Predict the structure.
Amino acid sequence: MRLKITNMKFISSRACLLLAFAIMALVPANAQEIIKEVEKDTVKPTLVNSTGRIKVDGVVAVIGDFVVLDSDIDLMYRELQAQNVPIKDVKRCELLGKLMEDKLYAHQAIQDSIIVSDGEVNETMSRQIDYFVEQLGSEEKMVSYFKKKNMDSFRAELFDMIKNQKLTEQMQKKIIDEVTITPEEVRVFFAKFKGEEIPVFGAEMEVAQIVIKPEISQLEKDDVINRLKEIKNDVINNGASFYSKAVLYSEDPGSRSSGGYYKMTRKTPFVKEFKDVAFSLEAGQISEPVETEFGYHLIFVEKIRGQEIDVRHILMKPKVSNGALQAAKDKIEKIRKRILNGEITFAEAARSESDEKETRNSGGLLLNPRTLETRFELTKLPPDIYSDVVDLKEGQITPAVLSDDPRTSKSYKIMTVTNRYDEHKADYALDYTKIKELALKEKQIQAIAKWSGEKIKETYIKISPEYKQCDFKNNWVK
């Protein structure tokens, strides 16, 4: 059967699910065995099963310094349901195997001195709680759904869970970052496929856009600068909390809930102006307002650790007047008319008129952030772009579209499809980059499997008898 790449998954989608709650179990050993029994004082009644017997919450697995409880598996089922993942065919053995994998990664991350900051964890936790509240209706319903006593206990356990998840992610990243692939390995990988086995790539398209941003008056800019200076003065001279000010006033949706926190190095993909100022500050210093394409920032360096720094920032954006917004719309409509009349090409107009510097030099072509190519799989286009361009014919241009990006504020844009590529059988020369990506993913999976096999042999592991008959993907039980 021919393989269709759009449906191909090399890395488990469950890698992005939350980990179950981790509880430290300091057991200094280095051999595998099966848990023979669970002491009565380590368990508690939780459920009554169909036979009328009390189901107890006991340790079902130990992996290094971590344990997996029976209730952790129940919790994972509830998490899947809360995220609208079908659970009908998901077996407890499968979830236990996933939990054990995660614990193995987290355990080894600690051995390798991988550090996850509290700021990172709090930022993720805030987003996760917001998501669950949106899905379940309220904090009270969320606490009840996950069977916790109160919000404080839920937050405490969620904090530990997310921290272990991030340790897992960092450990996985460390493993696969060391994996590289040569052109010869790509050739050998592709040569394995014959006839109907050759992968099929789905329909793709290249999309270009021209963006016109409304002009912001100096009065609006000065207002934002003065407000940021007042906040800086309040923090320095009156002892106000920068964290609290960021939560209250920052317009950065990605960091507001965590008090404006980011961990960064010089390689972190932030805009140059922000990085230049952040790395010029000493620990404890607060910058003057810094202008970037996103607005104005107040930057506070909280901690410096060699080449890595912990920063907090407050972002404020000058307001856009209705008049400026209308002027931007009029301008882009004139540009569209000139293109349609043949006075200028779309690419020429993008280079000379577009206010989006990321796409201006490429004639407006959007870059796929996943592949770093200009092609987008039709089914993986961002929804807001897909709805505007999916029905465009060659040479057609969308009407002026109002974009309200939470990062860059309001602007008007027009889009066109520059190329369409039909679904086709993979061609080594034309699709080399995609084939290389698939070959690399396969090699990464092999590296993870090898790493897991080696670490399982080295790590102290115990599994409850009731789960020893599970058909695990990894060789947890010998």
